[in-house]
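Work Package 4 report. The design task specified in the project plan requires that, given a folded chain encoded as C-alpha cells, an amino acid be chosen for each position. We show below one input record used in the internal validation round.
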C-alpha cells in the first residue's frame, strides 16, 4: 500500500484516495433479519449494499470486532461487489484502517468513537455519523456528550433532511449557550452537519402485476377502485395516529364521483395487541364505507403486494420519532404518487411533482416543556412522550380530505404524480446518486483534517476522562503500585501442584469469553523464568513480547505462585 497513487481513475472520474471511508461494522446496525426489523437496520443494510455496489474506491475497508462479523461482511461483499478489494481491520487496532482517513459510524452519537480515537490523536482519522431518529433521550444526551467529547471540526454527522438538520442545530444552540453560561468560555468548533438523504435500490420496488392482482382480489377491488397503501410500523404511539386518516377517508367518500370506491391497505407489524385494536376498531367505526385491510409486514411477500396493488402511497406521519421517511421513497420507486403529511423529511422527499402534502401544525415550545421534563425525570417513557406530542400535533382535516378526494377522483393526476415520483426516486434517492455525495463529504472531511492539523491533540489511553485506566482511578486501593522493572524473579518448586494449563482450566477465564492475555504468553513467560531469565528486560528479550505484556503476565504468575520475587 505504500505505493498507492494519490488519484484513482474510476469510471472516467478522478477520485482522490481520500474519497473513501472505512465502515464500522456491527451486526446490530446492518442485519434486520437477525436483530429485528426497524428503520435503522433496514437503512443500514440498504446502505451497505449500496456502498459496495456504487462506491468508486480502490478498496473496501471495514472495522469490526468478531470473526462472525467478518463472515457477515464477506457475505455482503461477495453478493454486491465480488470483484472489488476487501480489507478488514480489527476493532482493537483501528489505526489499521489507514490509509483511509475517515471512519463511517452508522449512528449519530460519535462521542464514544471520538474518545476511542483520542489515544491515537484526534487527527488520526475523521468520524462520520448518521442520524436516524433524533427524538429519543439517548440521542439527545448523545448530542450533549458530543460537545463535551473530543469531536473535531473535521468530523461530521449526516442529517438525512433539512428538518433533521434544523432539529440538531437547535439542540446544538442550546448546548453551546449552556457552555457559555456555565463555563464562561467559547464553545469548541462544531463538527459538520451536512444534509445527505438516505437511499434505496429503486429497482427492488418495481410493481409486479401478479402481486397487484392478488391484493386487489383479496380486497374485492374493481379496476376503477382506488387503493391507498401504507407500509410502516403500525404504532399509534411511535409512528402515526391512524384515526384522523380514517375520519378524513370517510369524509371524502361523499365528495367522490359516482362509482369510485376507496380502500386503505396498511402493511406492517404490531408490537402489542393494543395497537392492533386501535387500527382495527378505528377503521370499522370511523370509515365504514371504505375498504380496509391489514397485511402482516413480517411476511416477505406483503410489502410488494401493498406497493403493487396500490394506486396512492399514503404516509400521514404525525410523530417526532420519524426523521426521514424512507418508506414513501420506496413507494415513489414503485411509481406511486404520495399523499403525505407536511412533516420532517417528507418536506424534502415528497416534492410537488411526486405527490401532495397535508398541512401539519404543532403547538409552541411553552406548551410542551412539561412533556420534556416528565421524560427527562423518568416519569414518562419515550413512548408516552412521543404519544403526547403526537396528540398535540394537528394534520389539517380539511386539507387531508380535499387531497384524498383529488387523488381518488383524478386518474390523470395520479399518473402524472406517479411518473414524477418514479423519476425523483431514481434520480435523487437511488444509492447510485447518494453514495457519491457521501464520498464527496468524506473527501472534504479528510481535507479539513489536513488543513486544521495544528488543532489536533492526543490523550493517553490511561487518562481518558470517560474511561480512565483502573490503575489510575483506583490507585489508592492497593498497598503499593507494582513496579516490576527493578525486581528479579524465580520459579519455585511446584511438585505435586497443578501445572499452568491445569490452573488456567481451573480458573476458567474462557467462561467470560475474554482473557486479559493469550494463554500461550503465560507459558512463554513462565518458561523464560524457569530457564533463568530473571529480569523483566531479559524475559521480554527472550520471549519477543512487549515489556508491558510481560508485566501483565508476570503479575498473574505472581498471583498464583508460579513465580516469586527473588530475595
Amino acid at each position: 500500500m505504500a505505493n498507492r497513487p494519490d488519484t484513482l481513475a474510476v469510471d472516467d472520474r478522478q477520485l482522490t484516495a481520500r474519497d473513501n471511508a472505512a465502515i464500522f461494522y456491527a451486526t446490530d446496525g446492518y442485519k434486520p433479519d437477525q436483530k429485528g426489523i426497524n428503520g435503522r437496520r433496514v437503512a443500514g443494510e440498504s446502505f451497505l449494499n449500496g456502498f459496495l455496489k456504487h462506491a468508486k474506491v480502490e478498496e473496501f475497508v471495514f472495522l469490526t470486532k468478531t470473526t462472525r462479523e467478518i463472515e457477515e461482511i464477506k457475505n455482503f461483499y461477495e453478493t454486491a461487489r465480488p470483484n472489488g478489494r476487501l480489507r478488514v481491520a480489527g476493532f482493537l487496532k483501528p489505526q489499521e484502517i489507514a490509509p483511509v482517513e475517515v471512519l463511517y459510524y452508522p449512528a449519530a452519537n460519535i462521542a464514544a468513537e471520538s474518545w476511542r480515537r483520542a489515544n491515537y490523536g484526534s487527527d488520526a482519522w475523521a468520524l462520520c455519523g448518521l442520524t436516524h431518529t433524533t427524538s429519543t433521550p439517548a440521542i439527545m444526551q448523545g448530542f450533549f456528550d458530543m460537545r463535551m467529547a473530543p469531536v473535531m471540526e473535521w468530523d461530521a454527522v449526516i442529517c438525512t433532511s433539512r428538518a433533521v438538520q434544523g432539529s440538531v442545530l437547535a439542540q446544538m444552540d442550546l448546548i453551546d449557550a449552556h457552555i457559555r453560561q456555565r463555563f464562561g468560555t467559547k464553545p469548541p468548533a462544531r463538527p459538520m452537519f451536512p444534509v445527505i438523504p438516505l437511499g434505496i435500490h429503486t429497482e427492488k420496488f418495481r410493481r409486479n402485476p401478479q402481486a397487484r392482482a392478488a391484493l386487489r382480489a383479496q380486497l374485492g377491488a374493481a379496476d376503477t377502485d382506488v387503493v391507498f397503501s401504507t407500509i410502516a410500523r403500525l404504532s399509534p404511539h411511535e409512528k402515526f395516529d391512524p384515526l384522523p386518516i380514517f375520519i378524513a377517508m370517510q369524509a371524502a367518500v361523499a365528495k367522490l364521483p359516482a362509482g369510485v370506491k376507496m380502500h386503505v391497505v396498511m402493511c406492517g407489524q404490531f408490537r402489542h395487541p393494543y395497537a392492533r385494536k386501535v387500527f382495527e376498531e378505528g377503521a370499522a367505526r370511523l370509515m365504514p364505507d371504505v375498504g380496509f385491510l391489514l397485511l402482516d409486514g413480517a411476511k416477505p411477500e406483503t410489502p410488494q403486494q401493498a406497493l403493487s396493488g396500490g394506486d396512492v402511497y399514503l404516509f400521514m406521519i404525525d410523530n417526532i420519532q420519524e426523521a426521514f421517511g424512507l418508506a414513501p421513497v420506496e413507494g415513489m420507486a414503485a411509481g406511486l404518487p404520495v399523499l403525505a403529511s407536511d412533516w420532517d423529511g417528507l418536506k424534502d422527499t415528497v416534492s410537488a411533482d411526486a405527490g401532495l402534502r397535508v398541512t401539519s401544525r404543532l403547538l409552541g415550545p411553552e406548551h410542551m416543556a412539561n412533556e420534556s421534563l416528565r421524560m427527562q425525570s423518568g416519569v414518562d417513557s419515550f413512548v408516552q412522550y412521543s404519544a403526547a406530542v403526537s396528540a398535540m400535533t394537528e394534520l389539517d382535516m380539511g386539507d387531508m380530505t380535499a387531497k384524498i378526494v383529488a387523488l381518488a377522483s383524478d386518474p390523470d393526476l395520479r399518473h402524472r404524480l406517479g411518473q414524477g415520483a418514479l423519476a425523483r426516486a431514481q434520480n435523487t434517492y437511488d444509492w447510485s446518486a447518494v453514495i457519491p455525495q457521501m464520498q464527496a463529504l468524506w473527501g472534504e472531511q479528510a481535507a479539513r483534517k489536513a488543513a486544521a492539523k495544528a488543532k489536533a491533540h492526543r490523550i493517553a489511553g490511561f487518562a481518558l476522562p470517560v474511561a480512565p485506566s483502573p490503575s489510575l482511578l483506583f490507585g489508592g486501593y492497593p498497598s503499593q503500585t507494582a513496579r516490576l522493572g527493578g525486581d528479579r524473579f524465580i520459579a519455585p518448586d511446584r511438585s505435586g501442584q497443578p501445572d499452568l494449563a491445569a490452573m488456567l482450566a481451573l480458573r476458567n477465564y474462557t467462561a467470560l469469553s475474554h482473557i486479559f492475555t493469550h494463554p500461550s504468553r503465560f507459558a512463554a513467560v513462565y518458561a523464560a523464568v524457569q530457564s533463568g531469565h530473571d529480569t523483566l528486560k531479559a524475559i521480554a528479550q527472550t520471549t519477543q513480547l512487549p515489556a508491558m505484556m510481560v508485566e501483565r503476565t508476570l503479575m498473574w504468575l505472581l498471583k498464583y505462585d508460579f513465580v516469586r520475587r527473588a530475595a
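Residues 1-13 have pLDDT under 50 and may be disordered. Validation will be extended to a larger panel in the next phase.
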